[in-house]
Amino acid sequence: MPDHPDLPALLGSRLCHDLISPIGAIGNGVELLLLDGGSGKGQELALISESVAALNARIRFLRIAFGMARPDQSIARSEVSSILADNFRSGRISTDWTTPTDLARREVKAAFLLILCAEQALPHGGQIAILRDDAGWSVTAASARLRHTAPLWSVLSGTANDSLTPAEVQFPLAAQVLADMGKSPEIVVEGDRLRVSF
After folding, report:
1. Residues 6+ positions from 168 with CB-CB distance below 8 Å
2. Which of 91, 101, 125, 149 has its CA at a distance of 20 to 30 angstroms from the CA of residue 119?
3. Residue of 115, 87, 89 lying closest to 171 (CA atoms)
């Protein structure tokens, strides 16, 4: 058995998992259209439209989190804000993104991976606050029902964990991106808040 998890395989499973629900809903909407003999299509078309929007939002988010990010690439704050607003439109988890206008894409990639990590701590919903200031970056997950799984979060600091599931692939990927940037994450849990700083 390998010492480290097969990250490409985990990543493939994670992508399939995240994309299958909205794609399935699109298929259901199309099926309803086909079953209906051509009369009112309002509800079915609304389902398709919402599903397509959800799929596009998730793909845009995952493209930043899992895609390539060269050191010389940047991304506008307005684009990041748009991606987050579309991705978290359901309202179960809200985000607050506070950063300068010009952002290094590699740093945003790290922050997006940490947002995916923070989602793991918020199974019942909550808030994720992302801050970039002179001290660096911080990603804070907050919820009255916060779930902190210490062995999982220790992966961010380089601790090996060969029992990861596809839904947890963002943890070693974030650790790798941070290490490549020469950053060491600091994880602090205080009551109903979990904060990762780098």
Report:
1. 10, 120, 152, 155
2. 101
3. 115
What separation, in Å, do the N-terminal and C-terminal C-alpha atoms of the chain show?
Answer: 32
- How does residue 62 score in pLDDT terms, banded at 50, 70 and 90? very high
Cα–Cα distance measured from residue 187 to residue 178, given in angstroms and rounded to the nearest whole number = 13
Angle in degrees, CA 119, 124, 130, rounded to 5: 35
Alpha helices in the chain, H assignment, sequence order? 7-35, 42-66, 77-87, 105-120, 150-153, 170-180
Q: Which domains does the chain show, CATH number per domain?
A: 7-197 (3.30.565.10)
